[in-house]
Amino acid sequence: MEDGIWLNEPKVWTRVGGVLEVTTDPSTDFWRETHYGFTRDSGHFLGVRTGSSFTAQLRVEAAYEQLYDQAGIMVRVDERHWVKAGIELSDGRAMLSSVLTSGRSDWATGPYEHDSRSFWMRATVAQGVLRVQVSADGRTWPLVRLAPFPEAPSYQVGPMCCTPERAGLRVRFSEFRLMPALGKDLHDLT
């Protein structure tokens, strides 16, 4: 994350020894059109430039308190092509959430059965395919999402957090790793 570039730099953040701590600004979000009809590109994202294929992972620690509080990982080609995935507070509980945007956003959620205050996210992009995984312990990585994703000579990937309904979510990102794309079998959870 040391060479990351901010999209919507938060007013309050620190980066020391590979640990990024962020406090969200008010009314921050990433969303394009679907259902709500609006477009927002105001969330906090620290993007690290990649090559045409990669795997990135990071640890996320936060205490989600209000509707739509969210933190996780983002992969971005441009403002119309991106994915964000992590924990999002919805319907009164922490949900495993992903939004894939190709012109317009979709939204997929499911209950997260582990401790939402500390988890890991992994994103792999290779040959037009995106694979998103989650881990409760940093060792076992079940699949969250497998989807087509635009092929590009490079991407930006890194930590993302938003609070559409408030300000003040404090998030700690650590253990960021950027590596060649893992060519593992779909059911290899390591």
Structure commentary:
By secondary structure, this protein is mostly beta strands. The chain has one domain: Jelly Rolls (Sandwich), CATH 2.60.120.200. β4 and β5 form a beta hairpin.
For the biggest sheet, the summary is:
8 strands, antiparallel
Could you report the average pLDDT, rounded to the nearest whole number? 96
CATH class: Mainly Beta
Radius of gyration equals 15 Å
Please work out how many helical segments DSSP would assign: 0
CATH topology: Jelly Rolls
Alpha-carbon distance between the two ends: 23 Å
Structural class: mainly beta
Number of strands: 17
Strand content: over 45%
State the share of residues found in helices, binned by percent. under 10%
Query: How many separate domains?
Result: 1
Order of SSEs? EEEEEEEEEEEEEEEEE
How are the SSEs placed, and which strands pair?
Layout: E1 5-7, E2 12-16, E3 19-23, E4 30-32, E5 39-41, E6 44-49, E7 54-62, E8 70-78, E9 81-90, E10 93-102, E11 104-105, E12 108-111, E13 118-126, E14 129-135, E15 143-148, E16 156-162, E17 170-179
Antiparallel strand pairs: 1-6, 2-3, 3-17, 4-5, 6-16, 7-13, 7-17, 8-9, 8-16, 9-10, 10-11, 10-12, 13-14, 14-15
